Amino acid sequence: MLILSRKVNEKIMIGDNISVSIIEIRGDQVRLGVDAPKAVKVFRQEVFDAIKAENKAAAESRTVFPELDFGAKRETL
User: Fold this and answer.
1) How far out from the chain centre does Cα 57 lie?
2) Which of 1, 15, 65, 70 lies in the 20 to 30 Å Cα band around 76?
3) HSE-CB of 7 using CA atoms within 13 angstroms
4) In this structure, are residues 12 and 20 in contact, taking their beta carbons and an 8 Å threshold?
5) Is 0.70 topped by the overall pTM?
6) What are the tens digits of pLDDT across the range 54-66?
7) Whether pLDDT at 21 is above 80
8) What average pLDDT does range 41-52 have in this prediction?
9) How far apart are CA 5 and CA 28, in angstroms?
C-alpha cells in the first residue's frame, strides 16, 4: 500500500486518466473528489461489498420456472 500525504486542493494521479482530489478536511473526515472516465466504476468500499454480496447471492440462487402447459395432454400412470 502506498501512503501519501496531501493538503486541500492537492491531487493524486492514478494512471493517466484518474485523479483523486482532496476537497476538504474537517476533523477526522476527508472529502475526496474522484475524476475518472465513465467506464471506470468508483464506489465506496461498503457499497462495493454490498454489490458483490448481491451478485454472489444472485449467482448462487436457483431460478424455479413454473411448469408450462401449452395444451398438450399428459399421460397419467
Assistant:
1) 15
2) 65
3) 0
4) yes
5) no
6) 999 888 887 777 7
7) yes
8) 96
9) 15
